[in-house]
Design brief:
The chain has 337 residues and is α/β, with parallel strands linked by helices. It folds into 3 domains: 64 residues, OB fold (Dihydrolipoamide Acetyltransferase, E2P), CATH 2.40.50.140; 157 residues, Rossmann fold, CATH 3.40.50.300; 55 residues, Orthogonal Bundle (Ribonucleotide Reductase Protein R1, domain 1), CATH 1.10.40. Helices cover 19% and strands 23% of the residues. It has a 6-stranded mixed beta sheet with strand order 10-9-8-11-13-12. It starts with 36 loop residues before the first strand and ends in a 7-residue tail after the last helix.
Length: 337
């Protein structure tokens, strides 16, 4: 029926009534996605997700997007998800992620220490491998400390992986972290024998993290020959490496022995989200000694009447271990790392 409007003629579409919006009755019924397939997100690229799924023909890789009902819920590398749609994996096929399973661990960081927004880097990893070169570039304790703090906060097991031991003595660095009880492996050549490191990775999902140029991508290529990760070099003037990885990538170890996640080389790792009380929980022996601390005590070296100091005076705490813990605590606010 034409509108009574002289501006429109009968040949104009605008001359006719349009259907009303929201004419379909709303329903509380929601799809159950009974045909959804389980998968693991292995990388994220501009809103597209690469997902590994297991099928009757073995593991295959598919592309997916996030379904609208998930809203702003983030999906990151390592997430266990359920997908529907075309999961064939052929060129042009696209599935939808309709559910993100509950995460067991979450590795977070903030861009800076005054940034209130947390950014999730990886989900569901059990081990954080802090890759540090003993020389070329020189080890930087600030990042190691911060990575350890992030691992303890996330409930992940830390592991120090010291590379280029043919250029420097690892004992100098290890003496700093021995009192914390952090396990370590030492490699002399990144392309050489990695047997000890491989043993530490078996059956786990491990995140490799470190500054650019320390050899993460070279390690990944040695552990997963098919990875073909680009390898960078250290700048002779600045002593820093060039970013070669641009996004976190999850790779299956040969023979299904576990997963490794290669992360981009980082130069900023804010810890504004980490609370002192949460950090000390990673050290049960020290945590017990803080039960009588005054309210609001951060357990730092400048805190009056801290239970850690009293425990040292009574001979119940190892001063070196307490000092190492307080160094990690201070790493939350250090700016040069």
């Amino acid at each position: 029926m034409a509108r009574n409007n002289a501006r429109y003629g009968r040949e104009d579409v605008e001359a006719y009534d349009r259907p009303r919006r929201h004419t379909r009755p709303r329903t509380k019924d929601r799809p159950t996605y009974e045909d959804a397939v389980d998968g693991i997100v292995v990388t994220v690229d501009r809103g597209r997700f690469t997902v590994h799924i297991d099928g009757p023909d073995g593991r295959r890789e598919i592309w997916a997007v996030k379904a609208r009902p998930l809203g702003r819920k983030g999906v990151v590398t390592g997430d266990h998800v359920r997908v529907v749609g075309d999961t064939s994996g052929i060129d042009g096929a696209l599935a939808r992620i309709v559910e993100v399973r509950e995460r067991t661990t979450v590795l977070r960081r903030t861009a800076d220490d005054d940034d209130p927004v947390e950014r999730v880097l990886v989900a569901n990893a059990e081990q954080l491998v802090v890759v540090t070169a003993l020389a070329d570039p020189e080890p930087r304790h600030g990042l190691i400390d911060r990575a350890l703090v992030a691992a303890y906060d996330a409930g992940m097991q830390p592991l120090l992986c010291l590379t280029k031991a043919d250029l420097a003595d690892p004992e100098v660095l290890l003496s700093t972290y021995r009192s914390l009880g952090v396990p370590w492996v030492v490699t002399r050549s990144l392309e050489g024998d990695l047997g000890e490191l491989k043993e530490r990775l078996v059956g786990k999902t491990s995140v490799l993290l470190g500054h650019s140029g320390v050899g993460k991508s070279t390690l990944v290529n040695a552990l997963v020959p098919s990875a073909a990760r680009e390898v960078g070099h250290v700048n002779a003037v600045t002593g820093r490496g060039r970013h070669t990885s641009t996004s976190a990538l999850m790779l299956a170890l040969p023979d299904g022995e576990g997963w490794v996640i290669d992360t981009p080389g980082i130069r900023s790792f804010g810890l504004a989200h980490v609370e002192p009380d949460h950090l000390i929980e990673a050290f049960p022996d020290l945590d017990e000694m803080t039960e009588d601390c005054p309210r609001g005590c951060t357990h730092g070296s400048d805190e009056p009447e801290c239970g850690l100091d009293e425990a040292i005076e009574r001979g119940e705490a190892d001063p070196e271990r307490v000092e190492s813990f307080r160094r990690l605590l201070a790493a939350r606010s250090v700016t040069d790392y």
